[in-house]
Amino acid sequence: MTRDIDISDDATVPVGRFAPSPSGRMHLGNVFTALLSWLSVRSRGGRWILRIEDLDPQRSRLEHARLIEDDLQWLGLDRDEGGIDGTGPSAPYLQSLRHSLYEKALRDLEATGLTYPCRCTRADIMATQAPHASDGRVVYAGTCRPEGFPAVRPKADSRPAATRIMVPDRDICFTDIVAGPQAVNLAELCGDFVLRRADGAWAYQLAVVVDDALMGVTEVVRGCDLLDSAARQIYLFDLLGFKAPAFAHVPLLCNQAGQRLSKRDASLDMGSLRRRYSPEELVGYLGHLAGLLPKPEPVTPAALAEIFDWSKVRRSQEIRI
Ligand code: GLU
Fold it and tell me: Which residue among 138, 140, 227, 236 has its CA within the 20 to 30 Å range from the CA of 73?
């Protein structure tokens, strides 16, 4: 399975999206990702969607989603579709309102014969780690895989089951716009992965694929911490019969100690930044960090879109600020 994607050759109207989880106010790193996603499509006359990834009811708050919308508007990152009350062609744009679409995709994946119920607890999974997981990653050993795979421990059928999907033991290849060529063997990276958890919650990997596919997204721009999800998602796009989007996994903003900015860094959240800077100052600063501007001078997103080119964007995994 090989994909070489050159987005500049694609004749269709580019469709990008920003898909924040509303677990807090956006910080500078979130804005950096949103800006690059917006610039990429706007520089080519494309469309931009805001999708709210609120599948985790414990962490998601509607008031955070409202602040995200307000902050994007303040920055000048306008959208064509999406948001809390979005009524566009792919509505609704809150994942918590899209369960029936995930159900349908799960049924389609079940029909491939590649899914199976899994009743392993976290402790079971840790106790049966596959041999590849030397760097701390958790690789599912395939304990509950149907026949043809050694059952490590028989399972009682009474507990609720998660649904996993079998992965092939071969490379999935694609070219990330920022990170370059990738070859990922899912059997080594993660093993058979979860589509729906035993408590009924949808896995990010399934929901994001269903949404990007049904929303017609042609390019996914997000932080490089999600680079290792792309191969799982390409695998699901293929099984569901959708064309996978192009991927651009952009650097993460980190502090001087190399720690990734998080929603806990209150001084860099949008509430604090909006009190100290204008939208143009922030956009100019981020454009400079990205490698688009020689110095951090104030600029509007629209003016930055005119000079945007992926070839100028810094190709590191992190940018220290
Ligand atoms: N909701 C994810 C986050 O906020 C992003 C998922 C994605 O862009 O695919 O980290």
Answer: 227
